[in-house]
Amino acid sequence: MAAPLIWGLVGAAAGAAVAPLDPNLLEEGIVVHTAQRMLEGERLYRGVVSHTGPLPYEFLALLFQIFGAKIAVARAAVVLLQAVATGTVFATARRAGLGGLAHAAAAAVACAPALLIPLFSIYYYTTIAFYLGLVAVYAGLRARSSNGWAITAGTLVAAIALCKQNTGVQFAIFFIPAVALCAEPGTRLRRCGAVILGGATVALATLALFASRGDLEQLFFAQIQMPFAMASASTFRTPYINFWPPGRLDPVIRESWAMYLPSLYHIRYGLFVEIGRGIVVLTQLLYALPFIALAATGVRALLGRIHAAAWIHAAFLAAMTAGLYPRADWGHLVVALPPALVQILLLFGSSADADARSNIAHRAVGGALTGVLAIGGAGVTVWLHGVAGPAAFGPHVPLKPVSRAYRGPALPRVISYIRNRVHPGEVIFVPRQEPLIYFATGTRNPTPFEGVLPGLRDWEEPIILEALESVRFVVMSDIDQPIYTYYSDELPAVWNYLERHFRVPLGYPMDDYNWIMVLARGPDRGATAIDLVAERSRAKQWLRDESGQVAIASTTPQRLASKLLKRPLPIALGARGGGIDFEVDIPANAVFQAGVGYRGLVSVDHQYIHPPGTTLEVSIRSDDDFEPLASIRIDDRLRAGRSWTPLEADLSEFAGRRVTLRLEVKAEIPLAPGDLSWFGSPRIAFEPESPQSAPKRRSR
Predict the structure, then answer these.
(1) Rounded Cα–Cα distance for residues 153 and 56 (Å)
(2) Residue 15 contacts residue 377 (beta carbons within 8 Å)
(3) For residue 366, what is the enclosing H or E element?
(4) Helix/strand/coil for 479
(5) How far apart are CA 34 and CA 474, in angstroms?
(6) Structure confidence at residue 558 (pLDDT)
(7) Distance of CA 606 to the CA centre of its chain
(8) pLDDT score, position 357
């Protein structure tokens, strides 16, 4: 018992060492903010929407009730689970006859919080499911000769499903046959029955609890219907990384390469860098490792008997690997990497007791692997603390940031701005995927959603639009564009409302760090009559060569990421500029509106800088010649271009007429091939009839 306990303490120390680092706006924010809302009286799946199991939320809400709603409470719970999981992995490996290799297996789990940051250091339903799965493997191994352990194993498998449904179901599919295969002859049906009994008991207790609350229908919708709707949404699926050729990403993968590379790489170099061949090869190998481990298990079984622990643990690895579909990003891979290494080690086990296999070779190899993992984990932990910035996210989130985006001033600026301008418990809206901001600012979420739910637009949009009527401040980020998805595509009506009613407040600092910013309610800009970004495919795009002649553009520029609540309309440029023409019918009381002059924008794999020496002009043709309506010469000074400059033109004299509206970029000096310019959210709008009324206050 001493060795598993010692490894449990090592796992706790390793987890505690990184627990004070890096707030996690999305994954941890979802659970922490939901638990806080439940503590305040809201009901899970009725007042707060989630598509995952209730266990992490209910457990954290209970911890908050006992110890207070602090993020340190959530992180401490993860440290405890890390300790238990590390100790049980060592115990599993020792029972498998690994001898000295058991230390390496435990080290693989102990070092995960540092080497695979941030998942294993945050309170998240995947994290909880992962640690419970490692304990379930140990219980499954003991279940070979004990109905009590079999019931415990079934209870743990059900608990995993109550964290993350698909993981629990996948694990059960592999786990129950593995227990049957490894049970003593004549007891297989009893052991499987005991596993099923444990799981069924947990399932029935959960159903009874929600039935007593009157929320059984909501539970069914959240656990069954919603996940299927989200999984069918195209924005949720990602292709699997290519294994060949080594060091080169498939073009489809390269469009979203940041989703695949290790977190430590992004912490060191950021998101928008030239990726080297070496890191791509390493990533390909890591993606291959779970399959290598599973294939090696099959080969080893064909060559001779393998220990029961290898079969049962293979069930866990198979479930973790299955989680890579349909979304094969780094966040889904990390839960398969420690089990993959442990699985390879378990293949060296024996049916004999551990002492019989504790030979010199196992001790030597186990010691070397343990040393490498320990040195790597300790070194990375020291490095993370070295690069960490000061805790600047308010008293509710006293964590030191290590991610490059979090180390900058943008997020602390947002939190400070909101905290200084809202009254306690006021509602704000965080549209994208950063619900931890509610927790950090002491504000409330006026909607039941903690982020975007892909594929459920018709349900989400009316609820959010109604809630926005009571909101003074919005916190908007651009980090999920274009790598992940576009908010203006997911919830276009909400985006249009925000463009119409919100803007960056006067005096808000504008610099290169504004990947996330505050928007304040302002005057009504009027309803959209014609969205020119949406009409882009029907417009005529053209270039102007060095002699000033016009030629049709041969290619359509890539879509650019939105910035500061503006959707860029990119314009390809020739040597002397370019433009885009729209054939439109001008309604009454119409005005042209756009933003211009923002300095730098990104596409899926490139960062563009606005070319110098350009003038952006809006003109119109109703008869023969184009008539200029408005123009602005772009400010090329070094510190310029950190915000959009309004460009507007009155269209009332053209009401009721069909015209050609031209958006043009004129170049004073020859431009380089491939240069782009852009208008921000160009549209024809109706003049608002009356000033914007003050937002209504709502209580919950």
Answers:
(1) 19
(2) no
(3) helix 360-387
(4) coil
(5) 19
(6) 82
(7) 21
(8) 45
pLDDT at 487: 87
pLDDT at residue 228, rounded to an integer: 83
What number of other Cβ atoms are within 10 A of residue 628's Cβ? Answer: 12
Going by their DSSP bridges, the two strands 676-686 and 590-596 should be labelled as antiparallel
Cβ atoms of 470 and 694 within 8 Å: the answer is no
pLDDT of residue 355: 47
Contact 667, 616 (CB under 8 A): no
| Cβ neighbours for 581, distance < 8 A, ≥ 6 positions apart | 539, 540, 541, 542, 660, 661, 662
Q: What are the angstrom distances between the C-alpha of 27 and each of 230, 381, 451?
A: 17, 21, 10
The encoded tokens of residue 541 equal: 């795009």
Phi, psi of 492 (to 5 degrees): -65, -35
Q: Rounded CA gap, 423 and 444, in Å?
A: 11
**Residue 695: CB partners within 8 Å, gap ≥ 6?**
469, 470, 471, 472, 521
Q: How far apart are CA 616 and CA 679, in angstroms?
A: 8
CA distance linking residue 2 with residue 5, whole number of Å:
5
Angle, alpha carbons 305-307-312 (nearest 5°): 120
Distance CA 578, CA 666 (A): 7
Residue 53's identity, in one-letter code, is G
Nearest to 343 by CA among 313, 315, 365: 313
pTM assigned to the model? 0.92
**Which is it for the CA torsion 121, 126, 132, 133, positive or negative?**
negative
pLDDT tens, 579-612? 999 999 999 999 999 999 999 988 766 788 999 9
> b/e per residue, 651-681, with b = 16+ CB within 10 A?
beebeeeebebbbbbbbeeebeeebbbbbbb
Q: Is 654 left (phi over 0), alpha (psi -120 to 50) or beta?
A: alpha
Partners of 649 in beta bridges: 592
Phi, then psi, of 571 in degrees rounded to 5: -125, 120
- How many whole angstroms separate alpha carbon 529 and alpha carbon 460? 23
Q: In sequence order, which residues have a C-beta less than 8 Å from that of residue 257 and are 6 or more positions away?
A: 249, 275, 605
CB contact at 8 A, 519 and 565: yes
Question: Measured between alpha carbons, how far is 88 from 94 in angstroms, rounded to an integer?
Answer: 10
Closest CA relative to residue 261, chosen from 61, 116, 64, 440 = 116
Give the residues of the chain that fall short of pLDDT 70.
Answer: 233-236, 272, 350-358, 479-485, 604-605, 690-700
Give the tokens for residue 105.
């297996």
Q: What is the 3-state secondary structure (H, E, C) of 286-341?
A: HHHHHHHHHHHHHHHHHHCCCCHHHHHHHHHHHHHHHCCCCCCCHHHHCCCHHHHH
State pLDDT tens for residues 266-276.
999 987 678 88
Nearest to 54 by CA among 216, 231, 230, 236: 216
Q: Which two tokens mark 651?
A: 């269209």
**Beta carbons of 168 and 206 less than 8 angstroms apart:** no
Q: How many CB atoms lie within 10 A of CB 230?
A: 16
Residues 681 and 593: their CA atoms lie apart, in Å, by: 8
Q: Which two tokens stand for residue 219?
A: 């539970």
17, 190, 267, 276, 379 from 404: Cα distances, Å? 20, 53, 6, 19, 19
Find out whether 53 and 164 touch, Cβ atoms under 8 Å.
yes
